[in-house]
Amino acid sequence: MRNDRRDEPFSQDRRSFLKAGAIAGLGAAIAGMHTASAAEERGAGEARTLFRVKPIEQVRVGFVGVGGMGSGHLGNYLRIDGVQIKAVCDIVPAKVERAQNAVVKAGQPKPAGYANGPTDFVRMCETEDLDLVMTATPWEWHVPVCEAAMKNGKHAATEVPAAMTLEDCWKLVEAAEKFGKHCQMMENCCYDRIELMTLNMVRKGLLGEVLHAEAGYLHDLRAVKFGKSGEGLWRRAWSEKLNGNLYPTHGLGPVAQCMNINRGDAFDYLVSMSGPARGLHEYAVKKFGADSPQAREKYVLGDVNSSLIKTKLGKTIILIHDVNLPRPYSRINLVQGTKGIAHKYPDRIYIEEQPREASEDVFAEFAEQDKASPNAPAKKAEKPKPRHGEWQDFENYAAKYEHPLWKAFAQKGKGIGHGSMDFIEDYRLLTCLQKGEPLDQDVYDAAAWSAIVGASVESVAHKSKAVEIPDFTRGKWKTTPPLGIVEG
């Protein structure tokens, strides 16, 4: 769960912030619901894939939003050498002070604090001498913060999704290209263990050519959405105004890397449909009563949204969004190739080591049963039943295919940030800046993965019509090499 803001009262400042954000978000939602092909006309610049900047020995960072996720990133940054926290911004002064104290406790000078209203991040970006601005705010503020950072000469990093409309996806791409700055969406699930191991398997050819993937974000968020702090202060409102896949990147990011999206292939179009909206209303009635204000809220977000994505090379991805119904957590994470299939939730893998010759056994068994009298019980086959494939444990392959990044940093990030993956994603961003290397996930990935939000909303609104997904690379995907295996 991302962008978490916990343990804060619903202050008047926060009410003002959320009101302003809701207006901005709704306006963007209405303005941004153009067709992808129309939005694609915005891309007048030249795409710069594998973009790199000069090495930054000491990365000076400003934070916007230091609630749950922001504080988590801050803690990781303080554990990484060559990083200095220079400024902190939040609408809650107490959070700014808490973050400042954490920085001082870690042995760094007290960072400047910004808490003068919802847009004080602009003043921070204009005033402070920073290399990177990291934002972990409600969704509608991701693009404004990133734009302010890049406009003022800073690299930008944002929590997920990077943008909620196709129009805003283009804004990020155009700003990054215009100002020559990195803009990365911090998709931590790309750095979880099984996802990293699967990517390593794909790169080493174990699964053959990858043809299909299935992914999603399936997480019961009812209690979170009705919470009195954290995401409960803003996330539920999105269920009242958009119907589609509002949170695609957790599941999509890792499989997109395995399928070389923007690096040898690209999204082409999708079709999307949503079922009825029941979960939030029934939860509100049960928890707050049938006459409560919560029970009178009207939701447009279908409880389960299913999208089917086709790539330029004809490959397919099934993507699910399911956050309003009771269920165990899952991101699915299925990657299927010509030689095998890897699947998380549950963790299992099947590799066809050699061609199977089970068909003869199958026909022999059927022939024996056909010989039996129609009234007699079916004759039990004496030959062993043919094997149609048996799942194996990922651990059987770990010794050979464990990803080098996981080997190097899993222990260092243990116990913090979603089981080490948050630390690894932060480490990789900062290390790329320090070494002057291209990012693992660039602005084109941020735009393409986040574009599913706007495209799915449009498809659902028009009886699941096919909606084009913009090629934010403007054809550079054809020549950009796949993401390699990063050593620890």
Keywords:
about 500 residues, alpha/beta, 8-stranded mixed beta sheet, 6-stranded parallel beta sheet, disordered N terminus
Write a brief structural summary.
The protein has helices spanning 12-31, 36-40, 68-77, 93-105, 120-127, 142-151, 166-179, 193-203, 222-225, 235-238, 249-258, 279-288, 359-371, 395-401, 404-409, 421-435, 443-461, and strands at residues 59-64, 83-89, 112-114, 132-135, 155-158, 183-185, 210-218, 267-274, 304-311, 316-322, 334-337, 340-343, 348-351, 467-468.
Helix/strand layout:
Elements: H1 12-31, H2 36-40, E1 59-64, H3 68-77, E2 83-89, H4 93-105, E3 112-114, H5 120-127, E4 132-135, H6 142-151, E5 155-158, H7 166-179, E6 183-185, H8 193-203, E7 210-218, H9 222-225, H10 235-238, H11 249-258, E8 267-274, H12 279-288, E9 304-311, E10 316-322, E11 334-337, E12 340-343, E13 348-351, H13 359-371, H14 395-401, H15 404-409, H16 421-435, H17 443-461, E14 467-468
Parallel strand pairs: 1-2, 1-4, 2-3, 4-5, 5-6, 7-10
Antiparallel strand pairs: 7-11, 8-9, 8-14, 9-10, 11-12, 12-13
Helix pairs in contact: 3-16, 6-7, 7-17, 8-11, 11-17
